[in-house]
Amino acid sequence: MGRRGGPAGRRTIAWSRELCIYMFIWMAKFGAAYGVRTGIHVGVDVLIKRLNNPWRKGVILFGLLGSALFTAIVGTMGAKFVIELMSTDQVSPALELPSWIVYACIPLGSYLMCFRFLQVCWSFWKNGELPHHDATNVDGIEVTSPAAPIATGEA
Fold this sequence. Notes:
Blueprint lengths: L6 H32 L7 H5 L2 H34 L12 H5 L1 H23 L21 H4 L3
Helix pairs in contact: 1-5, 3-5
């Protein structure tokens, strides 16, 4: 029964699949906070760019503060959920981890994201700049010519 496809084989795959799912969830929550910090999130700013500066600044600050409030609410609700889970004996099926450890990514990731939104908001308030991700800039690679070969159609 220990050969491939038997019950022992399914158990071996079950714990690794469960671990992979949990790691992906944790990565997504903390990756979202990283995205806020670096400005890599997709934003629709067609209308905002058409506003004059005082209105533009106000709308952007409103959006950042609203996002901070939303993530703070999600973090607080997640923290209440995790605290309630701590009083149970519920464990994950394959790894037998306490469920509160698995779900702790919700308040931790949400509070980190809230902190990052407040950081970006403060920075924007002080200097008027939002973080911007430059997809053409890769750390460790130096561009020697002013135009990249792909952009000019030479590649």
